[in-house]
Every structure is written in C-alpha cells, then in structure tokens.
Amino acid sequence: MLGGISIWQLLIVLAIIILIFGTKKLKNIGGDLGGAVKGFKKAVNDDDENGSETSKPQAQVRHDEPSDSTNTYDVEAERKSESSEERK
Predict the structure, then answer these.
(1) pTM attached to this predicted model
(2) For this UniProt entry, what is the primary localization, expressed as one broad class (predicted)?
(3) What's the first-to-final CA gap in the chain, in angstroms?
(4) What is the pLDDT of residues 35-48, one digit of tens each?
C-alpha cells in the first residue's frame, strides 16, 4: 500500500503514539496545529490583498541571445591590497 506499510502497521503506530502522549495532549496538539494553519492562511491572504493594491508593476527583463558571439568578455577580478596610507 504506502511503500510497503500496511494499514495494520499504521494502526499499531497510532496506538503507540496514543499510549505515549495520551488523547488529551494529542487533542491540544491538533488544535494548536489547526490554529497555526488558519493563522498562516489568513496572513497569506491578507498579504495578497494588500500587496496587489499597492504593488507597482515589475520591470520586465529581456534575455536576447546576441547574434554575434564575439561580444563575450573574459574578466578576472582581483582585490587591491590596501596600503597603510590609504587606511589613515
């Protein structure tokens, strides 16, 4: 089924988790997780609503292939060493 995990193995894992944490703690964790997901969705929707009204159109960048490949420059950048006079 799920990569070699049967429903019985999942039920056994679920039973062990319930024995370790207890149903009350699992209920609290589920409620906290649900609240976090709702808050995340609300924040994303609010950001989309606010961002679409105030956002400026973005600049478009063109990626044209040069017709002549001889315009390629090979540049090696080096850092200048600072002398003691330039630091003062």
Answers:
(1) 0.40
(2) membrane
(3) 72
(4) 999 999 999 888 77
